[in-house]
Design brief:
Alpha-Beta Plaits; alpha/beta; four-stranded antiparallel β-sheet; 14 strands; about 300 residues; about 35% helix; single chain
Amino acid sequence: MISLQNIHKRFDTNIVLEKVNWDIPKASIYGLVGPNGAGKSTLLRIIAGVLKPDEGTVTVNGVDTFDNPSIKKHILFVSDDPFFLPQSNIKEMRQFYELFYPSFNDAMYHTLLKKFNLDENGKINDFSKGMKRQVSLILALSCTPDLLLLDEAFDGLDPVMRLSLKRIIANELLNREMTVIISSHNLRELEDICDRIAMLNQHHISIQDEVESIRNQYHKLQLAYTEKIDSSILTDLNPLYFEQRGNVYLMVIKGSMEEVLPMIQATQPILNEEIPITMEEVFVYEMEANGYGQSI
């Protein structure tokens, strides 16, 4: 279990994280989402023990991660801008990682090299962005960490490589109960692989739950009437999103339908249809409800 308790972090006068509380169960794949500048990368670095929070603690199985080599050798953070030694090749980077991760798995390393079709003697500086991303993932997975932190993990990967990465992560979770946190702007990608989602918004975690539990809290409704109605009847239900097109109304309700359904039925719609909602839509509607992007 990874536990974040009352995490605060600021850079000069800029508040990045404030009162962040988050529990990550073992053997789970957690997606971390949030608007640009929300502090996702900073939060991952704090979990990895790279940055020290101004206040609060991050613990793994009750042990603080910061400045703790015995814990850090089981945690691996892959940045959105991976670091490689100057003029190094993959083999040299492998040797570098082996110094810090005694659990480095040679068989896994060679299997992934073959799967991603990379030459371990090739100079990494000559690789494309996607290939560099592949190198960082090969090294990270070969270290067999208990906790893998991925910042924009799928960025620069083609569809085949993305699918391969998802399969590898899923296998590692099943075979040895690895825990994974993936930060990404691609909600559709996270929805495919993650069993839980956390949303970082306005300096703290505003949502954290299983994907299906989150999705079940949001209801996208399409209503149609024989003639126009007083729309205030529907807007009084405080929808996250509301749109009218003639006699057709589209709205997104957050919460239990048991309370609002009788009020909707009282308006006697000729069509009352609930449309499946994606996690990307949930993210957009939550952000817009908090004023994000409204001035654009």
